[in-house]
Amino acid sequence: MSFYTGNLPGGVPGLLPRPYYWWEGGALMGALIDYWYYTGDPRWNHVAQEGLLFQAGPDNDYMPPNQTMTEGNDDQGFWGMAVMSAAEHNFQDPPDGKPQWLALAQAVFNTQAARWETEDCGGGLRWQIFTWNNGYNYKNSISQGCFFNIAARLALYTGNQSYADWAEKTWDWMAASGLLDAATYQIYDGMHVENCSKITPYQWTYNAGAFLHGAAAMYNYSAGRSQQETWRERVDGLLNGSLIFFTGNGSNVMTEVACEPVDRCDLDQQSFKAYFSRWMAATAKWAPWTYGRVKPLLAASALAAASTCTGGDNGRMCGLKWNTGKWDGTVGAGQQMAAMEVVLANTIQHARAPVTGRAGGTSVGDAGAGGRDVGRSTREFSPISVAQTAGARFASCANTYYMISLGRWLLMTNEAENVKTILGTRMEDWPIDGPRLLATLPVLGPDSIFTSNGDGWHRARALVKPSFVRDQVADLGCFARHVGNLLAAIPADDTTFDLQTLLLDMTMDSSTDFLLGSSTGLLTQASPEAQQFVKNFEYASRESAKKAHLGPLLYSIPHRGLEKAVRGLREYVRFYLRKTSAEKETGKAKERNYVFLDELLKADPPEKFVIDQIMSILIAGRDTTASAMAAAFYFLARNPAAVEKLREEIRRVGDEDPTWEQLKQMKYLNNVIKETLRLFSPVASNSRRSNKDTILPRGGGPDGTQPILVPKGMSVRWSSYVLHRNKAVFGPDADEFRPERWESDLRVSWEYIPFSGGPRICPGQQFALTQIAYTLFRFFTLFRAIEPRDPSPFRVRTSLTVALAEGCLVSVTRA
After folding, report:
1. If exposure means fewest CB atoms within 10 Å of the residue's CB, which of 339, 766, 774, 797 is most exposed?
2. 750 φ, ψ to 5°?
3. pTM score
């Protein structure tokens, strides 16, 4: 239990810490039940009960939202088999009002029976539940074995023939498909549905054990002599076939023959012998004639396993290779479970017989359990809003929970205090790393203000921040010209157009003008070089985000298209950098008083360093600002009362070209912007990775209100979409666009972070807010109404930032 942290402050009940996967937590809960069953020692009973109930999921069928996106049928099956053991051994029943062991097992069975499909390979369960997961095209024996095992045991416990029918059906399909060799009773790993005749030939102990145990249950369930003889023959056949797993001088020491001899057992495979031992012993209880064959194998294996338990810091860690007679240097929860289970299995003759519903069983069942679960099939769902998508898991799990993403553990949090700690008070513990860094590094470079840490970040910040002082932010002359180009490009004859596209063009024009002193001119007449620059920019942003989604391993695969686009981007910026440097040398007069690039060059930094900063500000200044503006117009088009109230405030200013000071004093205009950024943050989520073992203030304890220990190297992610919709902070209508909420006594801190927070808060925050305010002012001075022309729900697309998925389709009416 030294490997288990679910019972410690901040731990997640039922989960082993990374790198262990969710299913092995279910296997461990089953091992704790076995420990109590064989020894009578209840010290771990509360841990097992808590873990089994905590991971059951909202529909009580072991499809918890923090696992379902990556959950396979075999993963769910291990939890189902654990609660089946709890029912059979009369393990302490859950409290009233909680799901009961038998009902939980029935729910797992029901959801899996609904996934049986005959379109490919004539039947069986796929390895994966959802189409998007790697392995969906594979039908593996352990998924069938878990399903068969649960069905057979449910038939015996409940006396219901329908479970037995499913067990028979599964066995028949395994034999017909060739995964179960009818002659040798050996069981092979699986098959890809593209070629059902090509079997993956590996054999694993847990496949043999799951079918052996289930066959023994079917022998007990069968009423007629003929049926019993059939299942007796199958039990004997499976025992014969399992002899392949016993090696050594006496051919009696359990060995994972597919991986142990070649030192290739992965983390999962290191635990398989635990379940084989468990199910061999249980078979001897339901098929007593097997005891004489099973016990010598278990006894020899237990002695061999015990001989390896001399390793680790405490001298009690067990190895994987029991044949060696000594510790092999490996340490893990799987090795410990396997050694414990094989030792306990040797006392099977002294253990009480498993109970059934008709003979001593106390667990309450529910034949229809699991029927509400969305995981029962892979059907399509109607579109849901951004808020629902981002918040669904927090709503059904907790405000802080662990999940697996791309094979790695990830901590998700919706606690403002945690975000404050990460971005503010303990910023030094949480550098930019992991998914956030992977997504931006190819485009922005390693020295950018958004990708660097430590001294490198301080240097970049010191260079960039002075460029956003009040005098530059308040000077609207440069930006006014580009807003004028935008307004001139808008059709005013009730024509439907995409305002988001125009805004992206405008902010690219204004950003390059502000940064480089030369606009791309997309709204007027762009040069071929500028047009190619924009194509490269959009391609690189999209492909860089995709590349990050592959995870660290596949991320390293070369992407020549992305590399070419980034070279083109940097060459474009390099041209203006060198042009500006040359003008500086010759003393040539500038067309404008202020250009961002000029300010950067005053510190005489390296060329590559300057390009990294320019690319960073360009991403922030173009994409995020345009997306935020588009969202504001999206919401206003659907709230004509807000448009009228905004136009009334604009009329009171009495000026078609406002100053920065006038814009700052317009309360309703600024409330519209605040409300837009609350419901739509262009950077929808953020993450950091801990550089040492550290503490977050919320997420631990039974109710999630206690501190939680976060290990070194753990990535933590949070969503501004969810934070900004906290009904306890923003009111019961937090999902609605209502600028008036900011007129009240609403006080927010880390619950509202559209520009992030702490020392790394966006340096261009005031610059972006000023641009948005100025654009809205000028737009609604010229147009009196804006109407939506797209009935689609509010959805976004992602690259390095987010934007409206279908654009902002509207029509306008002139004032």
Report:
1. 797
2. -80, 0
3. 0.55
